[in-house]
Specification:
Layout lengths: L7 H6 L3 H20 L4 H4 L9 H27 L3 E10 L14 E9 L23 E8 L1 H18 L2 H11 L1
Antiparallel strand pairs: 1-2, 2-3
Helix pairs in contact: 2-4
Length: 180
């Protein structure tokens, strides 16, 4: 058992700390997923197929429905701070020639990604806040990356394949279900 962990629940329930931890994590996942997917009570009753009793389902539904608005509010505010791509700067760095080098030098590509937690317009300017003035809050972040050409080509191929895959009906339907 870990230090600084209350042993009262473990003793009262006559179980281990890991069992209690796993159950709490499962309840939190149930609460978050039910809130994200807007599960209705009728859909929640399908837990019978997992051999839950009606009493257990009623208690779980009461828990989920009582905490749903709080979880949805937290999820909404946490998604507001996600970073979005804004701009890219890049530079190619390579040694031109050297007699002391036995093998050929590999060029390095340095990239600076500009990310922003606020949506920006096509002119790369921050959008105005609701009162008409530009936002004073610093929402930008810069990330520096270095890679070799082989890795960059592989990265480009993976991103292009992901872009092609994102245009399929299957993915569009999947994304639509989360946007509701």
């Amino acid at each position: 058992m870990r230090k600084n962990v209350p042993s009262l629940p473990v003793k009262k329930l006559d179980t281990t700390f890991e069992t209690i931890k796993t159950c709490v994590e499962a309840l939190v996942c149930l609460l978050i997923d039910s809130s994200k997917l807007h599960i209705t009570e009728e859909e929640f009753l399908t837990l019978r197929s997992l051999q839950f009793t009606d009493g257990q389902i009623a208690i779980l539904w009461q828990f989920v429905s009582s905490k749903r608005s709080l979880v949805e509010n937290i999820l909404k505010h946490s998604s507001d701070s996600e970073l979005h791509f804004r701009d890219l700067e890049w530079r190619l760095e390579a040694k031109v020639a050297s007699r002391s080098m036995v093998k050929q030098a590999t060029p390095i590509i340095a990239m600076k990604l500009h990310l922003d937690s606020e949506v920006v317009n096509e002119h790369k300017e921050k959008l105005q806040s609701s009162d008409g003035e530009p936002s004073k809050q610093n929402t930008r972040k810069e990330v520096l990356l270095q890679t070799d050409p082989t890795s960059l080509v592989h990265l480009i191929q993976v991103l292009e394949q992901a872009l092609i895959d994102s245009k399929t009906h299957r993915v569009r339907n999947f994304v639509k279900s989360f946007q509701k």
